What we know:
The chain crosses the membrane at residues 12-35, 47-66. By secondary structure, the protein is an all-alpha fold. The protein has helices at residues 4-8, 10-87. The longest helix has 78 residues, at 10-87. It starts with a helix and ends in an 8-residue tail after the last helix.
Amino acid sequence: MCSPIFSLSYPYSLFAIRYSLFAIRYSLFAIRYSLFAIRYSLFAIRYSLFAIRYSLFAIRYSLFAIRYSLFAIRYSLFAIRYSACSIFPISTIKF
Length: 95
């Protein structure tokens, strides 16, 4: 049984219970939407990591392409040099 002090404040106790239940309800909504936010943040991180991974692959293969393009330029210059040697006398070609 409640003490007489609580029985005198009966209407206020009902208000307190009612607003406490509202607070619990909205706290549960906040928790629910916070979990949604965490879930979608994890999805964003996951897909960002995929994007970073494939960007690094693209950079890696671009560097390979640059490397082999430089090799192609080098051997093309050798080909031009030796082709020019067969056309012009060696003494006129200065590299």
